[in-house]
Each structure stands twice: as C-alpha cells, then as structure tokens.
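Notebook p. 47: complex prediction with magnesium ion.
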Amino acid sequence: MSVLVMKFGGTSVATLDRIRRAAKRVGREIANGHDVIVIVSAMSGKTNELVGWVGETSPLYDAREYDAVVSSGENVTAGLMALTLQEMDIPARSWQGWQVPLKTNGAHGAARIEEIPPDNITARFADGMRVAVVAGFQGISPEGRITTLGRGGSDTTAVAFAAAFDAVRCDIYTDVDGVYTTDPRITSKARKLDKIAFEEMLELASLGAKVLQTRSVELAMRYKVKLRVLSSFDEYDENAGTLVCEEDEIMENNVVAGVAYSRDEAKMTLTRVADRPGIAAAIFGPLAEGGVNVDMIVQNISDAGQTDMTFSCPVDQVPRAEAAMRAARDAGEIDFQDLLADTEVSKVSVVGIGMRSHTGVAAKMFKALRDDNVNIKVITTSEIKISVLIDRKYMELAVQALHDTFELEKAR
Ligand code: ASP
Ligand code: MG
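Predicted complex, structure tokens below:
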C-alpha cells in the first residue's frame, strides 16, 4: 500500500467546518487507494494564545512546561480530525507525538527530530486502519518529556513522516495556493510557480517567504521527499499548487525563480577596527553569543592597519548587537571608533538555480536598481542567490523592478 502524507495548517483546521472540508480531501485520497498519514496544526491563533498564557504565568518559564502547554493545540485538532473521519466511516485514529513515538533531542522549544520508528502505525495500517492522524509540532525527548519543534514545526513533522514512511508525496495544505514568484501583495504580476527546486525553495524560505518552515525544506531535500504546497480552500485538481522537487524534474528553467525580501533589517558598521588576524572572530563570536543573527558581512579595505567592518542583522536585534560590541570593547577584546546603526534598510534577493549556468544576472539586477535610482548599500552572493541591502522606502519599488526585469510574470 502506498502512503500519502497530508498536512493541514492552522487556517485549514480553524473551525469544525474546515476540519470537515479537510477530512473530505482525505477521503478522496483514500478512494485513490492511499493509506494516509494526516499531520495537523493547532487551530489558527491557538498556539499564539498558548504561548501568551505561558509568558503571562511565568516570564522566565521552564521550557519543558512551555512545551507541555503549547503542544496541546495540536492534540485537540488531531482528535477532532479522527472523529470527523470516523463519522465518514473511514477507519482512523489520532496519535500524539509520544505515542508514535516521534523521538527528538532534548532541546525544548526547538527540538530536532531524531527518529520515527514506523512500526506502530504500519501495524495499524495492516489491521485495516486507513488514516493515522498525527499531532504536528511535537515529540518526546530522551528523558520522556514532551518537546516541540519550533514555530511552524508541523511542516517539519509532515516531511519527517513522509521520509520515515517512504511516502509517495507530502501535500502541505495551507491558505495560499502555492509558492509565488514574489509576494502578490507587492506586485499583482506575481505568479504561482508550478514547480520549484528544493534549493530555490530553501533560499526563498530562509529569505522570508513564509509558506514553509525552512527546516522542512532542508529535510525534504535531504530525503528527496516530493513536497506539494496547495490551498485547502480551492477546488481540488490533480495539478494544483506548487511542487517542490529536484531540479532535473523542472524542464524549462527561468534563470531567476523568485524575488524575496526581508523588510526589517539593520546595517551595522564598526569603524576603525584593527586589521589583524582574529579580529573577525573577536567581533562575530560575541555577536553570536549575544544571540544576534548576523546575515551579510563586509570587511572594507584596510588603511594604516585599520579597517571598517559592516554586517546586517534583524532590526530588533540592534540593541543586542550594540550591547555585545560595547561589552567586547570594555573587556579589551576589540577596539573601534564608532558603531553606526542604519535601521532603515531592507534586503531584496533574487534566487534561481539557473544562475549557476548563466552569467550576467548580477549586472542585470544592478542595472534595474540603477534605472530606478535605488542605491545599493551591501551586496552578497551565493551560487544561486544575489542579495542587496537598500533603503527600506525603496523596497517595494525594487521588488517590482526586479520582477519585471527578470520577466517573472511569464510562465516558467
Ligand atoms: N501550531 C504551531 C505553530 O503555530 C506549529 C505549526 O502550526 O506548524 O507554530
Ligand atoms: Mg505554518
């Protein structure tokens, strides 16, 4: 029997009515001959509420109890989904993470999955059960405590189950109908992609496209899980949504697949730091320890043994970055003249596996920005991505210009 994994996000199970709607989709896949593992999120808004309750009760909470509380939203939807399926005469039961068991490490609040032994669920499928409804986002630690996988973690649960059960596909049902060339709120020319390569999706997800948790894409890429993102509200059709797949499954490749952005960035510059071996370690070590997520890094040309060091980070981490740098200076680990913070910048990136084999993408990108008089403050590149930091007030304009330049409105 082939196993299909279907994951329903919070908006897709937000009411009893929507759970019924989702259950009907499960019924259709049963009729197609699949055994189905359904992964559910909590009803939309529920996890936020639970997180809020924990913080109100105990500001410096015990992370094990945080997990006990915030994992509970998924237990409710798993039970309700199983009941709904039973009402439709489909043999189904719910499983909490620990019952499967979905084994994780002990990093409460951000646990990593270690193993999902398939035996228990497989045995029930052999007994005639057709649907295993599993609470997403949760597992069990080596100490036997409930863990959660980090916000958005039920995507990762779904992909991990698809890998463990060698599923034919992992369908992620959500409130958008797929992955877009860019945010449709920024340009109406944004277009749904029929297919996108794992690596592109990984870049887009980590650059701020929120449709899939980054870790779930990483996992899908590693285990070659065919992932499909689709809306639970649209009428069903075989080719709905976006397939996230290996690059050789995509015939016609645009050089650029999408334009991503991250609105609230900051550009920090340390002026006149000593240009000596170990200086980068002396700066970025304390930043990492201070919990600052450094993204772009530029070291400028050295002048008389001194240099400027520029980096970017999320704007809400600027106070932390400043504190870490002052503390390092007070401790005599680094010296600098000024610490400049530009808190009005955004990052805009173009992503595409075609960049590996096509030259001139950067030049084309920079020309498009120049034509709109957008000044570039920092540039970084990887094999399949070019990112620039620009003034935040030009962010929308830049995204639109790049979407036009790379003709992303045309079908791939
Ligand atoms: N309910 C969890 C959250 O809101 C997990 C998920 O839905 O993916 O983060
Ligand atoms: Mg989600």
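Notes: The mean pLDDT is 95. Residues 372 and 401 are 8 Å apart (CA to CA).
Next step: compare against the earlier run before touching the bench.
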